[in-house]
From TrEMBL:
Subunit structure: Monomer and homodimer.
Protein name: GTP 3',8-cyclase
Binding site for [4Fe-4S] cluster 2: 290, 293, 307
A GO BP annotation: Mo-molybdopterin cofactor biosynthetic process
Pathway in which this enzyme or protein is active: Cofactor biosynthesis; molybdopterin biosynthesis
Keyword list, A-Z: 4Fe-4S, GTP-binding, Iron, Iron-sulfur, Lyase, Metal-binding, Molybdenum cofactor biosynthesis, Nucleotide-binding, S-adenosyl-L-methionine
Gene giving rise to this polypeptide: moaA
UniProt family annotation: Belongs to the radical SAM superfamily. MoaA family.
Length: 363
């Protein structure tokens, strides 16, 4: 992989980011750097805003008004942006998200295109798993490296209540198929909801350890379509730890966290012994890790977002469909990243939830 030479940015100190940093202060650098010294090497690409589940913490039972197909980036446009990102901007990892990315018909072709690039990125997929058991081998052959599969409960009645769909068996089959296809380590993403499945944390960890999966608990974030999120109802990382400690002994994992959103812990039985596996906790709200963020995001309709909680976007679709060359697109992306704020600001009195829900932004 070709290394991207970086300049040394003028480092600002938080929280003085109420105004955009002067563009003149940005050093000459081909990479996606911001004024706090962070460099984006991880690109999250949303392939669609559509989903075939209706999770209660994400969208209403009737679904949402999906973006018209004409507004979505084409497979070719996505391929071009991936090439620009890896060749000119120093992107090393790509995660395909949604909505539900398996609903994107061109997904295998998009993966193959990215896998054939000289600066081939590591590629992963975040999915609800529906239908993955039939396609895991196809994605692996195309060049996908690994998957994260969402699973908030292993109880059928609760799965139906949370997702409004009776599809638990499909998800369990997806986990097995992904592992057999070599898309590992296979990770499970779980969100705990107070009074719904918050008593199931230890059961989920036992299930993951027994199956050889890596479990990641994610604090519920203010990204629901109805803007009904309340911090007081969120199950915190501290509570998750306390629940897991009733059945397991956790100790900090040796590997450095670096830019990973998950804080990792080795899992042992309460009586000690060998490490059974690892578990991660993504405490986006209670213990934000914004200072080490290495991500940039691209929505399915071609908008660059520097943060999940951004209230502004930069339009690359208009450049793609105009006469802009690769370097003009890359420079627009660099300028957008230079203006990235220090943190998401959820604790600020003036915090405003993004207008777009998670399904339209991409996980």
């Amino acid at each position: 992989m070709t290394a991207i030479a970086l300049g040394v940015p003028v480092i600002r100190t938080a929280p003085g980011d109420s105004e955009l940093p002067p563009l003149a202060d940005r050093p000459i650098s081909p990479g996606l750097i911001d004024s706090y010294g962070r460099r984006a090497s991880d690109l999250r690409i949303s392939l669609t805003d559509r989903c075939n589940l209706r999770c209660t913490y994400c969208m209403p039972a009737e679904g949402l008004d999906w973006a018209p197909t004409s507004e979505l980036l084409s497979d070719e446009e996505i391929g071009r942006l991936i090439r620009i990102a890896t060749e000119r901007l120093g992107i090393e990892e790509i995660r395909f998200t949604g909505g539900e990315p398996l609903l994107r018909k061109g997904l295998p072709a998009i993966i193959r295109t990215a896998a054939a690039l000289p600066n081939r990125p590591m590629m992963s997929l975040t999915t609800n798993g529906l239908g993955l058991h039939r396609r895991a081998a196809e994605f692996a052959a195309a060049g996908l490296d690994r998957v994260n599969i969402s699973l908030d409960t292993i109880r059928r009645d609760r799965y139906l209540a949370i997702t409004r769909r009776d599809r638990l068996d499909d998800v369990l089959s997806a986990l097995v198929a992904a592992q057999e296809a070599g898309l590992g380590p296979v990770k499970i993403n779980a969100v705990l909801l107070r009074g719904v499945n918050d008593d199931e944390a230890a059961d989920l960890l036992a299930f993951a350890v027994d199956g050889g999966y890596q479990l990641r608990f994610i604090e519920q974030m203010p990204l629901d379509a109805g803007h009904q999120w309340h911090r007081s109802e969120m199950v915190t990382a501290e509570e998750i730890h306390a629940t897991l400690a009733t059945r397991f002994a956790l100790s900090p994992h040796r590997a450095p966290r670096e830019g990973s959103p998950a804080e990792l812990f080795d899992v042992r039985s309460r009586s000690g012994g060998d490490v059974l596996g690892t578990v991660g906790v993504i405490a986006s709200v209670s213990k934000p890790f914004c200072g080490d963020c290495d991500r940039t995001r691209l929505t399915s309709d071609g908008q660059v977002r520097t943060c999940l909680f951004s209230t502004s976007e930069t339009d690359l679709r208009v450049l793609l469909r105009g006469s802009a060359d690769d370097e003009e697109i890359a420079e627009t992306w660099r300028i957008a990243m230079w203006g990235k704020r220090f943190g998401h600001g959820i604790d600020n009195p003036d915090f405003r939830q993004p207008d777009r829900p998670m399904s339209a932004i991409g996980g």
